[in-house]
């Protein structure tokens, strides 16, 4: 005879309670790298879903801001590989599955176009990959694409403009000046088109765009990051920098790429044979897409003439290098004299002393120009105006980067200025996820 109660009891014992789930939306212009990594680890979303969402965001707003000059055509496939590695317990490192943009000055060997913004290099194929890019890949990062930036690293051309990527624009005022040359890296990070981005700085090219996009920019001590495999505007001042939405995120990226330690020769093919300055001048003047007559490239000819007059052994060059070294020493002496750890300056005036001296700088949002601010124009774009962000820079002695990061992080957490601004450009493509509760 069938024992009905026994059957019911057996049936109930086999039931597994269903976990309730709640749906939430991730704001990709606010989410931190730590939150991305936690979401990936917990299976709330995949790297593939994240990359697809970033690409949709780029497609929605890039024709307005011109922050990204190229999306990696293999990004989705790479993201899928990262998901498979994670599922096998083989996550590579601290950035596994995190999508990063890189400035248009870094060589890669995965088919991305390293052009420096110049159309003459659209078909050139690099023979090496930048050390910083290799380090990102080794830690599992996904190179999502190339960020637009000032052509030739802002060497006297229109800031934020390149013949390849067009004119990058800021996001807090109509036709806002983005500052340069890491313009696209800053705007793309602020808009949530990536988790973070690599930039580079000769003179303000990381911290100034970071300021105008209300994000964090770290320009480390010159020599802390390898420059192998990137275009150099200045052998003595250039350094790789990081742009992120928080000090913590920027510090995480810097930790990955830090490496105590030439450019056009690193192409395996170079269809237009551009290798010396006279080649570049000829190509720029004769190629309409380069807009030579309107983009300030008359300086190239003067550079060529100056190169003939002033060698690396000239008194002028030697004196200039001595002045640069003197500036770095003076910052250290000033801090020692007054028993201080760092100097705080508005980012807009922090550029020259730190860049000339090779000192580290961390720029953090400090507020916004108030209503009624007079609108001023530079390079045909709005440089100052209501609601445009301002920032404070922490400057320290060479190799005191960690002290600056700790102080900048404390200031950021105490003020939270980034949360108080209003972006004019907005993106409504977000990542919706279901989380068990």
UniProtKB/TrEMBL annotation:
Signal sequence segment: none
Residues in Amidase domain copies: 49-269
Lineage: Eukaryota, Fungi, Dikarya, Ascomycota, Pezizomycotina
Species for this entry: Sclerotinia sclerotiorum (strain ATCC 18683 / 1980 / Ss-1) (White mold)
Coiled-coil portions: none
One Pfam match: Amidase
Name of the protein in question: Amidase domain-containing protein
InterPro entries: Amidase_dom (IPR023631), AS_sf (IPR036928)
């Amino acid at each position: 005879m069938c024992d009905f109660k026994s059957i019911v009891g057996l049936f109930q014992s086999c039931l597994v309670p269903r976990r309730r789930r709640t749906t939430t939306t991730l704001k990709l212009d606010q989410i931190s790298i730590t939150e991305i990594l936690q979401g990936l680890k917990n299976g709330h979303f995949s790297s593939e879903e994240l990359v697809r969402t970033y690409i949709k965001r780029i497609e929605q707003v890039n024709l307005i801001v011109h922050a990204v000059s190229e999306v990696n055509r293999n990004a989705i496939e790479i993201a899928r590989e990262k998901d498979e590695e994670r599922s096998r317990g083989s996550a590579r490192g601290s950035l596994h599955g995190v999508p990063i943009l890189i400035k248009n000055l870094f060589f890669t060997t995965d088919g991305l176009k390293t052009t420096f913004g110049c159309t003459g290099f659209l078909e050139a194929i690099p023979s090496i990959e930048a050390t910083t890019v290799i380090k990102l890949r080794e830690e599992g990062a996904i190179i999502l694409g190339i960020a637009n930036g000032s052509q030739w690293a802002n060497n006297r051309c229109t800031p934020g403009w390149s013949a390849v990527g067009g004119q990058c624009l800021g996001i807090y005022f109509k036709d806002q000046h983005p500052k340069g040359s890491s313009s696209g890296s800053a705007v793309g990070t602020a808009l949530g088109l990536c988790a973070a981005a690599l930039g580079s700085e000769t003179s303000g090219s990381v911290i100034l765009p970071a300021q105008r996009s209300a994000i964090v920019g770290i320009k480390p001590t010159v020599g802390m990051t390898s420059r192998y495999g990137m275009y150099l505007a200045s052998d003595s001042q250039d350094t790789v920098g990081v742009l992120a939405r928080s000090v913590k995120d920027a510090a995480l990226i810097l930790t990955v790429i830090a490496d105590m330690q030439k450019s056009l020769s690193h192409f395996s093919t170079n269809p237009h044979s551009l290798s010396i300055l006279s080649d570049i001048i000829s190509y720029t003047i004769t190629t309409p897409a380069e807009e030579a007559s309107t983009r300030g490239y008359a300086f190239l000819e003067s550079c060529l003439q100056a190169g003939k007059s002033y060698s690396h052994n000239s008194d002028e060059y030697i004196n200039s290098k001595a002045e640069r070294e003197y500036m770095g020493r003076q910052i250290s002496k000033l801090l020692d004299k007054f028993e201080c750890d760092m100097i705080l300056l508005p980012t807009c005036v922090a550029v020259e002393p730190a860049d000339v001296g090779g000192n580290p700088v961390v720029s953090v949002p400090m507020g916004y120009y108030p209503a009624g601010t007079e609108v001023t124009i530079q390079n045909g774009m709005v440089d100052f105006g209501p609601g445009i962000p301002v920032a404070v820079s922490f400057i320290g002695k060479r190799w005191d980067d960690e002290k600056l990061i700790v102080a900048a992080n404390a200031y950021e957490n105490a003020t939270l200025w980034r949360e108080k601004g209003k972006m004019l450009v907005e993106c409504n493509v977000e990542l919706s996820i279901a989380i068990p509760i």
